[in-house]
Amino acid sequence: MGASPTTDTRFRRIFDDHFDAITRYCLRRLPVADANEAAAEVFLVAWKKIGRVPEGAEALPWLYGVARNVVRNIQRSTRRSGRLAGRLGGLAPQASPGPEPQVVRRQEDAELVAALGSLKAEDQEVLRLRAYEGLTNPEIAVVLGVSPEAAKKRVTRALGRLRKVAGLTEPEDFAGQPRPVAEGGDR
Amino acid sequence: MTDARLLNRLAETDAYRDDQPLPDDVWTSAVALEEIELRAERRPGSGAVLTVRPARNPRRLALAAAAFALVIAVVLAAVFWASDRQDLPDVTNEAPLTPLEIGNALNAAIVSGDPAAWRSLYADDATYTVVDGGFVASAAFRHGQWRGGSSDPGRPVDRPLSADRGFLNSALGTAFPTFDWIPADGATTNGFDDLAVNAMAQYAQGVTRVWSCTQADLTTVVCAEVLAGHAFLSEPLPPMTDTFTVVDGLITHQEYDTSSVFVEPDTFPLRLEYQNYIASTRPELEDVLFSDLARMLVTPDTVETHRQLIAEWKAQS
After folding, report:
1. Count of domains in chain B?
2. In sequence order, what are the residues at sequence separation of 6 or more whose Cβ sits closer than 8 angstroms to the Cβ of residue A71?
3. Chain A contacts of B32, Cβ < 8 Å?
């Protein structure tokens, strides 16, 4: 490990390459203030575990795995403080902190986002990793700490549940030009 | 709609796409790097809770104040909930989990249906022992089938007797013919997968709390079964405890003590009701979800279906 995060060459390369992606990951799941803190925390972990950060293309999924845990820690902490406040004030516990509200361009987008938000947290996560972070199934496996086959199953199941919740049975339910995402886990 | 098309549609809802500028109040890489430097100086050896740095300009003052309030609330909450934590292990926490934390993490992993998190709490060479009284004999008498070391309703019974008997006091790495719940551990089935059937059956049955745990000493936590929220329990649970030996933050031995139980909790009637509900509403699933009369088949492929349908059955009954 070098003298500091700023001067350590390997850390700086990892940070420079992936700071934007990790920040966007956190923003998709937390309010901006928490996302800032979370992104910094992810790279602090990377700095302290610099010997365990994989080389090359595997570094980003590894960082996403750390980010996933950091985000969950923040959400749990907020839930706990919410429960405490609720108990003291006779209020219902607050929900997990989510990302900032976004203006969606189309009604069907809003419906799809709402359907995604109604799924279990695990299903939401694999779908966001696939669609938003653009990860392949093997990369998702690294993030979740499961086998590529298990990751593929989770994505497939989550898609099935999303389709069911969103009432998507007909191809014409959604129109528009999609951003290219390949089936089967290979970008 | 194909999976690819659905993913494309989902991708279009992303407010933080790579080609979109980030909001103004997002830290720049320079600010973030400065923050990381500060944290590295303050916490050279261990990960910890989030800290708050001094506000760097007036616009961030409000953010800093909010974050400070959050930290205070977190500290208060941590103290308040210290005796009742159900956290999963924190990868940023480098200290080994205490036995009590292990018990609570097991609870959380089971309640959230996460077999990988559950498995990660055991050492690879962990062992398992059942101390049973009349439990097994009662189960065999009542249902006409030998059930081996456990009578949990989700456990399939299509295994050879010798394997079941061996399970009573065995190393969890021993091979058993069951379902592979944790493919990441080498794609083989073993005693962990066998135990995972019970854990995931509890998840399927809507259990919201498995145990109430008390740390007995530095290496031992004793967890009394609670099974709160269990869909098929209609009578008080008899005393059953799991005692976990924990070394370096991992379970090295689990002892399931049912020696004072001579009549097992009878979940059969409600399981049968559930099966009848499936038979009448989704007959095509009955053979997939049940291996025998009122005997659920809980596998990685059926556990979520069971959970959904049990909740549905419970809601309408």
Report:
1. 2
2. A25, A26, A29, A30, A38
3. 19, 23, 36, 39-40, 43
